[in-house]
Amino acid sequence: MRYIAIDVGSTFLKAGQLDVQNLAITHMESIRMPEPLPNENPLRKEWNAIQLLELMKGLIDRQLASCPGCKGIWITTQMHGFIITDEYGVADTPYISWQDERGLEYADKLGTSYFSALMDRVGEKAWRRTGLWEKPGVAAVGLFHMLQQADLGLEIKRERQGKACAASMNDIQTLDSKRLCTLGGYLIQSLTGSHVCHITNAAPTGLVDVRAGKWDKDIVSAVGCQALQFPRIVVGIDSVGHYHSRWGGVPVYPDIGDHQASVLGSLADAKNEAIVNMGTAGWISRVSDAYRIGEWELRPYFEGRYLPTITKLPGGRNMAVLVRFIADVGQSIYGITLTEDTLWERLLAEADSFSQKFLAGERQAGKGQLHVHVGFYGGQTGTDSGAIDCINGDNLQVGGLFAAAMEEIAAIYERNLYVLATAGEAIRRITFSGGVMMKNAFLRDAIAKAVGIEAVMAPERDEVFLGLLRLALVSEGLYASVEETREVLLQKLHANNKGA
User: Fold this and answer.
1) Is CATH 3.30.420.40 the classification given to domain 2-256?
2) String of b and e for 467-493 (b: at least 16 CB within 10 Å)?
3) What is the pTM of this model?
4) Distance between CA 20 and CA 474 in Å, rounded?
5) Calpha distance 239→477 (Å, rounded)
6) Which secondary structure element, helix H or strand E, spans residue 187, and what is its range?
7) What is the pLDDT of residues 379-429, one digit of tens each?
8) Homologous superfamily of 268-458 in CATH?
9) Is the fold of 2-256 the same as that of 268-458?
């Protein structure tokens, strides 16, 4: 009994098969996410929605060809973004992602940025119901920007049938025939005709009352998009329709937020573990049985639980700034080009060597260590500037630079883990997940040492697929809850490791 799983991330689109009998993930396939549409405005991050749809359906069809009797299709996607389609499910806009910050643009008629104007309209009390921090990269802000620009008679470019064309936003303003879709919901609509989305992907739009599990009428009204057709929010994990493919009808399951799938796939203990994930950006999270408001985002999870989460932490893109600098030196000065993996491997080795030789001695002597402020991107949690200081005659070396940057990132995560500890029982262990953490033992050790508690790596590199496997096991009726699947998967992985 096998299911197909598809993961649409920020860097890669991946697919695989979930073998619920053998508790295995097989037939993995990965393609790189296309480049965003060209735009002179650096705040705009849009992707050709039809191109993305073709890539996603292509992955599914290739998997179906090698999965006879497929039991269903599971989907997990990046969150916060949106697409507007017509009543037939054809994209009227590009996919506008979480990386899009058009809301920060200044609006003359509002006397402030679109983002600030919307937050003022919504008010702090109402926005708290979304469980989100105030941030520009959510669908609510992008929609508000679009509709405000419609009032000004401006034009945007949209993608229809793969061809760019100019369309007045006044056309989009006839919203009663338009549908709001999450990225996963857009795929489901194309596959099944059902206009739905899962609560884990609906909530990140900033248009949902998380506790009620419903679209928030007050926020929708403040945005001005109440005439849109909103998808039905699904809270459970039952199938939402069928994909009538050349291999027959295949059940399709609701789109799961990649964050929730990752937490589930980490196999962390729901009571006293924190998950530290680092990919392009970083986040830390834990599971809570209670609806607790605090210095964190509060995201819906499974079976009535929530995820207190601290987001926008430094991640792989912060370290990549330094990697690109070293790569540029090698290419410009020495005419040497190294692959990204080779360069990372050498830089981490240099950081480890420098740390062993110099950092311990500098600490013992009370010398000022090289300090790298890693805030190379605006609006990140725990850091607000990018700089290198405390340079002395010994520490400005490649290894010193990278060791100092990772020590700084570890300190940022340590401070925020202490904040997250107040959201429930004491945190007794850390589980690391994400591609950057998988590759970067130096950073894992630095965070674990800073926090001073046990730390382990998630058992699977692509943990979102393990999370979807847990959901498939429950959907198949083999287990009553996702909690029951944790122990059996841990035993299976332990047996596999012992056998290897």
Assistant:
1) yes
2) bbbbbbbbbeeebeebbebbeebeeee
3) 0.87
4) 10
5) 13
6) helix 183-192
7) 889 898 899 998 888 788 888 899 999 999 999 999 999 999 998 888 999
8) ATPase, nucleotide binding domain (3.30.420.40)
9) yes
